[in-house]
């Protein structure tokens, strides 16, 4: 009988490694179904999908610069050896190759293959000869641009890094092709006057617009800023307190030169422009205090020249007009335009001696402030003004009225500029946050395009010289960089000629209307003068005296001076009548007033009117009769002129 010994040990003791084995007991009660509670379900809401715009600045991004290895290239030639011969044929031996060719040519399969391939090749050759695949059709046809569904596309939306909300009041593109954009941020100086303000302005890089590339530190907020056209590292800026400074971004973030407080402007600097000087360091600034000051960046202790915007013969600072904007064209180094808050544009010449000569002419452009001025990039004598609800296009030859007027219905305009590449395109910015595009060759009644850029008013606008990018600044501190489509930035063949023809036609029309207006006023003045002398003659006849009547040598417009002179004459006659006590008056010559000139007939001799009749009515009755005759003649003249204009039209 076999004996067996059974030894039982725990499995954990038999293993050298620690095992996680354990005895499991099957219990069906461990599998439990938990249903949702209906009371808790009612307190939850199912989330819906939402589209929310996210600014790139909110994300943590890392910018990496990677330089790839340049690929090395090498030119090598390839020598093609003759192949395809059998092994027993040496291609170097001409006798062997000739015998092999004759052998192949005698084969029937070779002849059939050549005939079959020849027919196919002949078919394809004839097919290619029918059409010239390299011919250019419709070479004389005009280029028809394809419509762009998004002609104004926002590239970047740059927010003010400052925690306080400030407006973008000044913009300037760098002269190195417009890769950088300087923006001045400010608030009105009366807003939060005693509170802390953030005075920083920024320079943005359009290619890397995640954050400002350079910060411009200042003691006060900048209202305007401008790049030096000859040096992209130097800027000039004007503050809301009238200070002017120079920044060199290579040296520091703060100003390297600053104007002393007592020699600068007394109000905020509204505009700064660099002038075309030999050294390239002169610029001039305008302010609401009514002054235009010229500066040299090498010495800012005092301005090198000043102009008070008072067109009177004796200019006074208290009577000067407040400047809103400046416009300067380097092709005309001595001329510049100044827009004022009173709606007047002044055409000035710096090289003149006196102030009256410096302000060459004035244009009554708008009812309110002139917010923007811009000369045409290709036609320097043409410039536009933006103010109230209109955009006016002017020429320097006509001062009374603009040659074209573009009206926005119920929207006040705050900025505007010409397109540098498309000569007939104008951009305007309005208080409703929309950007309006006008193409005056296409239509001039309504805007060609309207794009909503912001919900707050747009205060500043600047177009790049290349014509493909523009920047718009709003009141809430948002700076929009907008790309212009090819259709709006590319000039066509006949654009400039058509625009020149349009402007010349409108200029001739305005000159004709101006001349007709002057002629009408001269005729009106001549008729009024005749009525006046008839009234004086009737009074003289009533007074039984001889009266020397004065007639103007040149026609003048009717005015109250004529009636004042007539009244003085009648009063003198009336006083003389009272002193005579009913006695018969002798022939007396009455001295004429200063507004009257000797009456001259057709031969150049003086006219004396002498009558003697008894006085039957009073002086007041004669005066009333003369006035009624004057106004009746004026009404008849106006009606006759209206009928003539209708017949001509």
The largest sheet has its strands arranged as: 1-28-27-26
Distance between the termini: 146 Å
Name the shape in a single word: extended
Question: How many strands appear in the DSSP assignment?
Answer: 30
What is the typical, i.e. mean, pLDDT?
79
Q: How is the secondary structure organized here?
A:
Blueprint: H1 11-14, H2 38-42, H3 94-105, H4 108-130, E1 152-158, E2 167-173, E3 180-186, E4 201-205, E5 214-216, E6 222-228, E7 231-239, E8 244-248, E9 255-258, E10 269-274, E11 282-287, E12 291-296, E13 305-308, E14 323-328, E15 335-340, E16 344-349, H5 355-358, E17 359-364, E18 370-375, E19 382-387, E20 390-395, E21 404-407, E22 413-418, E23 425-430, E24 434-439, E25 449-452, E26 458-463, E27 469-474, E28 479-484, H6 486-489, H7 495-542, E29 546-548, H8 560-580, E30 608-610, H9 619-648
Antiparallel strand pairs: 1-28, 2-3, 3-4, 4-5, 6-7, 7-8, 8-9, 10-11, 11-12, 12-13, 14-15, 15-16, 16-17, 18-19, 19-20, 20-21, 22-23, 23-24, 24-25, 26-27, 27-28, 29-30
Helix pairs in contact: 7-8, 7-9, 8-9
Entry summary:
With 649 residues, the protein is an alpha+beta fold. It is built from 9 helices and 30 strands.
């Amino acid at each position: 009988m076999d004996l067996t010994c059974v030894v039982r040990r725990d499995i954990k003791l038999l293993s050298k490694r620690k095992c996680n084995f354990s005895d499991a007991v099957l219990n069906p009660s461990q599998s439990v179904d938990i249903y949702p509670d209906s009371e808790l379900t009612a307190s939850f809401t199912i989330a819906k999908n939402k589209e929310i715009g996210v600014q790139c600045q909110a994300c943590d991004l890392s910018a990496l610069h990677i330089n790839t290895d340049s690929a090395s290239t090498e030119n090598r030639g390839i020598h093609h050896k003759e192949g395809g011969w059998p092994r027993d044929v040496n291609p170097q031996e001409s006798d062997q190759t000739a015998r092999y060719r004759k052998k192949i040519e005698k084969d029937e399969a070779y002849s059939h293959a050549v005939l079959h391939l020849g027919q196919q090749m002949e078919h394809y050759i004839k097919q290619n000869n029918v059409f010239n695949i390299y011919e250019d059709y419709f070479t004389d046809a005009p280029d028809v641009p394809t419509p762009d569904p998004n002609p104004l596309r926002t590239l970047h939306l740059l927010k003010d890094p400052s925690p306080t909300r400030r407006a973008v009041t000044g913009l300037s593109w760098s002269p190195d092709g417009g890769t950088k954009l300087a923006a001045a941020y400010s608030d009105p100086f009366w807003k939060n006057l005693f509170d802390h303000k953030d005075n920083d302005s920024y320079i943005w890089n359009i290619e890397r617009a995640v954050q400002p590339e350079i910060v411009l530190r200042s003691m006060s907020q900048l209202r305007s800023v401008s790049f030096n056209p000859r040096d992209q590292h130097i800027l000039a800026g004007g503050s809301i307190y009238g200070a002017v400074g120079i920044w060199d971004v290579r040296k520091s973030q703060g100003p390297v030169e600053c104007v002393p407080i007592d020699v600068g402007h007394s109000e905020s600097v509204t505009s700064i422009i660099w002038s075309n000087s030999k050294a390239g360091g002169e610029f001039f600034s305008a302010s609401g205090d009514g002054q235009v000051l010229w500066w040299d960046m090498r010495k800012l202790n005092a301005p090198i020249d000043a102009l008070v915007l008072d067109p009177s013969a004796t200019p006074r600072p208290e009577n000067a007009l407040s400047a809103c904007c400046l416009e300067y064209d380097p092709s005309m180094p001595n001329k510049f335009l100044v827009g004022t808050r009173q709606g007047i544009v002044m055409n000035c010449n710096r090289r003149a001696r006196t102030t009256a000569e410096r302000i060459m002419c004035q244009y009554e452009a708008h009812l309110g402030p002139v917010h923007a001025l811009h000369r045409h990039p290709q036609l320097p004598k043409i410039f536009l003004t933006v103010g109230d609800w209109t955009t006016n296009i002017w020429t320097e030859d006509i001062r009374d009225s603009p040659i074209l007027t573009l009206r926005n219905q119920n929207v006040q305009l705050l900025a505007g500029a010409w397109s540098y590449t498309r000569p007939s395109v104008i951009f305007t910015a309005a208080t409703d946050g929309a950007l309006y595009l006008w193409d005056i060759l296409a239509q001039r009644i309504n805007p060609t395009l309207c794009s909503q850029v912001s919900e707050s008013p747009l205060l500043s606008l600047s177009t790049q010289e290349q014509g493909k990018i523009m920047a718009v600044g709003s009141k809430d501190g948002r700076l929009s960089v907008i790309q212009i489509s090819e259709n709006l930035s590319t000039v066509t063949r006949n654009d400039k000629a058509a625009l020149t023809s349009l402007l010349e036609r409108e200029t001739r029309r305005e000159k004709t209307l101006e001349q007709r207006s002057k002629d009408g006023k001269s005729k009106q003045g001549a008729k009024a003068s005749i009525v006046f002398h008839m009234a004086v003659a009737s009074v003289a006849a009533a007074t039984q005296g001889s009266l020397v009547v004065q007639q103007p040598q040149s026609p003048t417009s009717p005015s109250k001076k004529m009636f004042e002179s007539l009244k003085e004459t009648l009063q003198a006659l009336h006083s003389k009548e009272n002193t005579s006590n009913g006695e018969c008056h002798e022939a007396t010559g009455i001295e004429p007033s200063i507004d009257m000139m000797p009456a001259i007939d057709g031969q150049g001799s003086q006219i004396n009117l002498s009558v003697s009749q008894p006085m039957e009515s009073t002086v007041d009755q004669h005066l009333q009769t003369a006035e009624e005759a004057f106004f009746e003649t004026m009404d008849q003249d106006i009606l006759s002129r209206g009928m003539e204009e209708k017949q001509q039209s």
